[in-house]
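Students often ask why we bother encoding 3D structure as a string. The short answer is that it lets us treat folding as translation between two languages. Here is a chain of 162 residues written in the first language.
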Amino acid sequence: MLDWSVDQNKHPVLILMPGNEVTDRSADKEYGNVKYKVEQSGEKVAILALGDFYQRGEILAKEIESKFGFKPTLVNPRFANGLDNELLISLADSHNIIVTLEDGILDGGFGEKVASFLGMKDVKVKNYGLNREFYDRYDPEELLDELGITTEKIIEDIKGLI
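And here it is in the second language, the structure alphabet:
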């Protein structure tokens, strides 16, 4: 991905320093053709966990399986600036709930793009991310708890939506 960002000159590129574990995942994005990676196929609930929140998505998927007895779908979007329309339509047609997790601002962010795109579909979309505020000198885990972005709080939300 870094090679692509340096070699191409058609699109602006933002490079962020990961706050979590860095993993190697091959990307299959041709210019303008965004493809998300389905890491785990499942049913009822689809989790789209973007960026630094991907590991939180893995934990959430395991907890859903443990608490509810079914395996959710886990997706690594890999790209915040585009939508995999084909996959999103497929998920909306085969799941009841789509959860987006993003380590950025909700307002105008990835989750809102997904919810807007799926607005006419018969699926519930629940977005988790940060409010549009300046956070200064904070404990990350406390902030996530305040915003309802913990595994336990998301599980409670899902329980209410099922």
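Translate back mentally: The chain has a mean pLDDT of 89. Keep this in mind for the problem set.
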